[in-house]
Amino acid sequence: MTDTPLLRLDGLTKRYGALLVTDNVTLDFPEGELHAILGPNGAGKTTLMHQVSGLIDPDGGQILFEGRDVTALPMRERVRRGIARTFQITSILPGFSALENVALAVQGRSGSSFRFFGIAASEKALNEEAAKLLSLVGLGARMDILAGALSHGEKRALEIAIALATQPRLLLLDEPLAGMGNEESARMIEILKRLKQEYTILLIEHDMDAVFALADRVTVLLYGRVIATDTPDAVRASPEVRAAYLGEDAA
Amino acid sequence: MNEAVIPSAALPKGPFGLRRNLLPAVLFLAFALAPLAVAFGADPFFQSILIRIMIFAIAAISLDLILGFGGMVSLGHAAFIGIGAYAVGILASHGIEEAHVQLPITLAVASLFALVTGAISLRTKGVYFIMITLAFAQMIMFFATSLSAYGGDDGLTIWTRSQVFGSDILGNRTIFYYVTFAVMLGCYLLCRAMVVSRFGRVLRGSKENPVRMEAIGFSPYRFQLAAYVIAGMMCSLAGFLLANQAEFVSPAYMSWQRSGELLIMVILGGLGSLHGAVIGAAALLLLEEGLAGFTEHWKIILGPLLVLVALFLRQGILGLLTGKKNND
């Protein structure tokens, strides 16, 4: 059990025409780690996450979750097994209240949803759990607001609460800090630090400070290929990475 | 600390407020009391128009379920009216006139047609969904046209209305009125219960953001298909009633113009409210009736009117009545 990583990518490959966006990626994600993926724009970070979550199919290779092959499973099946994600462009239900957004995700794993009677929005068990998760991400006072009316940062936090409501074992976060101001960023980093205690996380993020503050392990992608995967310090020191990517930033 | 907030959040603001209940209550009460007007001397023809309105309201409610709450723009919904009507017509022509036999067959055929066509149509999105539902409806319309044993293009006269355990009570106009009213009210209440249920919440969520729904473990397809089948069955009841009212069945019942009218009713009344569909059905049929009294070119007036509604009343007549875009 200790030998099996929570997630293993084995020779994962994805092509768009002649363009190789995921080039034979083999990576292990042990339980409990926060694993950050770095890389310049177009390096294939989001495409990689899409394949792990099941949004798109790889052209080759395998995805093993808890030792079992999930490569052919649709996204919703992977959610049931414990892989939840957020999107680079926030994906929520704008016409639902924040609470209902999360309660619906709780509903997804508690009992059948082919129930045609009874008021879903009054189901106490669903709402209580949703409220707890919203408080966890700092939205405890904003539960009744329509999700579409929340601020950008609040929407990002809401999306994380939605993902948590599926009770994931692996959390995929695609640039949770994107588009945030300093204050919002700081708050989100606090949230991520808390989540890190409980979840295995795969994080795509451009904010270097955040990555080096949070990550246990960093992988650098370039043109779909893994050019380094190591501890943050080792990656920062790697001349190859500096040349390829960190270059000016690292100074 | 948050417990105090939950109960208020638990109540969906829309469907249970007094404002949201008052209008439907008045509306259905008006339909319930309307036969009194005939009893007090109004033209009996008025009652026939109301029956017709209620029949199309049933179809429009069922369309609103998949359109207003499921985001499925079907341009073939009238097919189910045709299925219901032909079930009555064909069975009656073979001497099977009992409603308790006709109804289950109607519902079974409608659900089967909805299941097969829905399973295929729902693999497409947007404009393609519109086109493929239209295509299926056209297919079944031409199929009906080709049934020369059942009147083909000319349609089929029904000599006996559906019998209720051997009795001809559906021939009584007032009883038929209230049967139609009960079906309409039943469909309305059923839909209202469904849209706030667990099932309805998934359906509404799938309309807003199917990818997010997949990402929390749902298959929007299954829920949309279930809604499509339910709506199809409901709409076939309208066909069942229409055949009995008109005592006639024709392929024209399922023409794409009919499907278009159903869409107009739903949008004209106010999308995604269910009682808006009833208002829309009444408005369109009364407008047709009224304008046709003025001029035979009444469509010249109706057309621009609909354009104005589409432009200025985003929530249809309902938006006008409630004074707001009150739809969440």
Strand-residue proportion of chain B: under 5%
Give a count of the beta strands of chain A, DSSP E runs of length 2 or more: 10
Structural class of chain B: mainly alpha
Q: CATH-wise, what's the superfamily of the largest domain in chain A?
A: P-loop containing nucleotide triphosphate hydrolases
Low-pLDDT sequence parts of chain A = none
Which architecture of the largest domain in chain A would the CATH scheme give at its second level?
Answer: 3-Layer(aba) Sandwich
Helix amount of chain A, in percent?
25-40%
Give the mean pLDDT of chain B.
Answer: 90
Largest sheet descriptor of chain A: 6 strands, mixed
Compute the CA-based radius of gyration of chain A.
18 Å
Overall pLDDT of chain A: 93
Which sequence of strands runs across the widest sheet of chain A?
A: 6-7-8-3-9-10
What assembly state would you assign to the polypeptide chains in this entry?
A: heterodimer
Shape of chain A: globular
Number of helical segments of chain B? 15
Q: What is the level 1 CATH name of the largest domain in chain A?
A: Alpha Beta
- What is the percent of helical residues of chain B? over 70%
Helical stretch tally of chain A:
9
